[in-house]
Automatic annotation (TrEMBL):
InterPro entries: Arb1
GO biological process terms held by the UniProt record: regulatory ncRNA-mediated gene silencing
Name assigned to this protein: Argonaute-binding protein 1
Compositionally biased region (Basic residues): 1-12
Location of region: Disordered: 1-45, 402-426
Length: 426
């Protein structure tokens, strides 16, 4: 019996021009730099592949394919990159020439082989259907910043299970691709937009960890004290949004609540709270957008730290203010427009300073607010918090979309269960 012929190793050249050598890592290492191109390779990119006279879609499709050959998109990185491209209207399904035999592929040039086995297509015509970018400017626009924001806002959170390390991996994958686009001068007409998208990557690496921290610290001492004093028993324990928060031992809600106002420069509110026993007059849920933060000044912080009750340190926390306007958090539900619940344009809420440190202007949250007859409002529960760059892309709703097709089969109905079963099988 003849021995099996050893399979030869695939050379770098066989994987196409500028392909990443196997000894070069994945291309996502911290100090990784693409090796310089030869004069012929640089000329080919400038005058043929990324010629400004070529349609944008053609240049970008070549860029995506060449980027894949220059990077090892293994495990989660490939998943993140595919989802990012989908939100941008790129078809990442297997190419039409995936059925070529090894011999047929071998007979092609490296460039032809890359084109034949490509899994990324930017149709830019009617072949895209309703699901992908079709070049129609009335339905689509080129927006690198918007696509990155949409990916970081929704898809990345679900794909990474909100884990910091995995989210960072998704952000750096997109950042690496955008730098590749700039480095190779793929679309100079959108250079400013690409740079803006790169800045957004930096913003995402800062804001998402802050929001993770914010979730773990909510409701904070002040809002916990207010809820325990004025809401039904076990309100904070039953709220799923505060499950990560640990109630301090020997927590004195009355001391925390009234001491906060005694030490702050809020004399009118303090008087209203102490002259009679406050009670909740109204409870409502609304979406807020942060427009201003007032952290406690040094004098208040010193007063809080030096506070002693009896012969023991009080362990109080400094309190500041956050000012919000009406906000909107879009998603795939058709939510009715809700009127702003108060007469004023802005709403002021009080938070522990450690919470204010982890807030950023422009962030949005949907929360349940309680209002006392003394005029004070406090947070009872939080449904969701999103970063300042949050955006919901309509493309999210096209994930399971299938193009309609003509059929002679009668439509499913309650009178024909077999038709319904056949429809599901299709």
């Amino acid at each position: 019996m003849a021995g099996k012929k050893k399979r030869g190793k695939k050379t770098t050249a066989s994987r196409g021009p500028t392909a990443l050598a196997k000894a070069r890592g994945s291309g996502f290492e911290e100090y990784f730099a693409d090796p310089p191109m030869t004069p012929d390779e640089a000329k080919e990119e400038k005058e043929e592949i990324y010629d400004p006279d070529l349609p944008f879609a053609e240049r970008m499709q070549s860029c995506i394919q060449r980027f894949r050959s220059r990077r090892r998109l293994q495990a989660d990185r490939g998943l993140y990159f595919n989802d990012y491209l989908f939100l941008g209207g790129v078809d990442c399904m297997p190419g039409a020439f995936g059925g070529l035999s090894q011999q047929e592929l071998k007979d092609l040039t490296p460039a032809q082989r890359r084109e034949a086995t490509a899994t990324d297509v930017i149709w830019a015509n009617d072949s895209a259907g309703a699901k992908f970018y079709n070049g129609d400017e009335s339905d689509w626009s080129v927006d690198f910043t918007g696509v990155a924001a949409g990916f970081f806002s929704g898809s990345l959170v679900h794909l990474s299970s909100f884990e910091h390390k995995r989210m960072l991996e998704g952000i750096t994958t997109v950042e690496n691709f955008l730098r590749y686009v700039l480095q190779h001068d793929v679309c100079p007409e959108y250079e400013d937009d690409v740079k803006s998208a790169l800045e957004l990557c930096k913003t995402a690496t800062v804001e998402w960890p802050m929001i993770r921290k914010l979730y773990s610290l909510l409701p904070g001492y002040f809002n916990l004290a207010a809820a325990e004093l004025f809401c039904p028993e076990n309100t904070t324990k039953d709220s799923w949004s505060f499950q990560q928060f640990t109630r301090p031992e020997n927590f004195d809600a009355t001391s925390v609540f009234f001491t906060a106002f005694a030490l702050m420069d809020e004399p009118q509110l303090f008087e209203s709270l102490t002259t009679k026993e406050p009670s909740i007059t109204w409870e409502f849920t609304c979406t807020l957008e942060l427009v201003q933060i007032f952290r406690p000044d040094d004098n208040i912080i010193k007063r809080v730290k030096s506070l002693v009750i009896g012969d023991k340190a009080a362990h109080q926390v400094p309190i500041g203010k956050a000012v919000f306007k009406q906000g909107v958090i879009e998603d795939d539900w058709e939510n009715p427009i809700v009127d702003w619940p108060i007469n004023e344009e802005l709403m002021t809420l009080f938070f522990d300073d450690v919470l204010l440190v982890n807030m950023m202007l422009g962030m949005k949250l949907t929360a349940t607010i309680c209002e006392l007859d003394a005029g004070l409002r406090f947070v009872k529960a939080v449904e969701i918090i999103v970063p300042s760059f949050y955006v919901y892309l309509p493309q999210e709703m096209m994930r399971s979309y299938k193009e309609p097709k003509e059929t002679d089969r009668p439509a499913p109905s309650v009178n024909d269960a077999q038709a319904e079963s056949a429809e599901q099988e299709d």
